[in-house]
Amino acid sequence: MEEKDNKIVVSNEFVDIYRNFNVGNQVHKMNALTKRELYLLLTLSLDKHSDENPTVSSNFMDFKEQCLEIFDVQDEKSTENQILLDLIGESGDQYIETDNIVDSNGDKLPDPYTKEEIRDIRIGIIEK
Question: pTM for the whole thing?
Answer without folding.
Answer: 0.87
